[in-house]
What we know:
Elements (H helix, E strand, L loop, with lengths): L1 H9 L6 E11 L2 E16 L2 E10 L1 H16 L4 E5 L5 E4 L1 H7 L3 H4 L15 H11 L1 E9 L5 E11 L5 E8 L1 H96 L4 H29 L10 H18 L3
Antiparallel strand pairs: 1-2, 2-3, 4-5, 4-8, 6-7, 7-8
Amino acid sequence: CGAVLAILAAMDSDVTQEQVCELKATRNGTQVEMTFQVKCCRTVIDNEVFMLLFLQDIAPVQQQAYEELKHIIETAHDGFLALRTDGFIVDTNRSFCQLTGYERAEIVNQPVTAFFPAGNSHIMPHLADIIKCTNCFFESRIQRKDGAIRHFEVSGSYTTQHGGRIYCFCRDITERKLADQRLHEQTVLLEAEIAERQKAEEALYAVNSTLEAKIAAAVAELRQKDELLINQNRLAAMGKLLTNISHHWRQPLNNIAAQLQSMQYLHDRGELTATELKSDVEATIHTVTGLSKTIDDFRHVVRSDRNRCLFTVYDVIERCMQLLSASFAENSI
């Protein structure tokens, strides 16, 4: 066996050499291939060098490990594919059959591109990336037997055993993709709703601004109208006040005119004495003083810069009665 001879040729120390190799041996007269674990050590007995070679058949152990690994892959939740480097499927598991709806016999020895929808030509470059980088992770779509499209996460690795093998585990992420799509659609709707709400708020703000301006203009107009109304009322009151003043002045003026005519009449007859003249002058001055006081009262009523001060209500009522006395007399009040 070339492997054993290579071990013996390398033995130049007391270090034990181990190697696993396949050997052809004869069992029951039949030559078969067997897998051995070879241990070789060097020892010296009576100044002679001996090479001790131990062979252990580990094929049963490897077969048990293979069966366990095969069981794990077969019962795995994720789908499994074993591919040759040309893309043809060598083996699969039950989960992949369930995910795609195909039987195992319909999958094995078929090109992997047969299970991908038309136009999904990126699978072969991904397989090339797996061979180049030893492992690779990507997302793809697989078409079921019933024509439905399923989304998968594919995790692939490469080994040089058996002439090169690509092993892929496929996880169905269709529900997650649909959830992501629904979330994206809801996000788009929410963003559109937020945009509409912002537009509505901006429009409402513009309306409020316009409304505030209109309210301010209306209030200013109402105030102006109120001022005009107040001025009109004041002018009307002043008109009535002037009427009352004219009535109030008519009698004193008549008295003054009568006194002057009496003075002239007495003077013409030579009967005007100094006492009578003084009495008529004082009466006239008293009447004129009353008229002047009436003018002052009128100015006090119509002035706009009056200051607040303490006053006697009786005096105010009496002065008002004096201003209205002529109107009362005319109307027999």
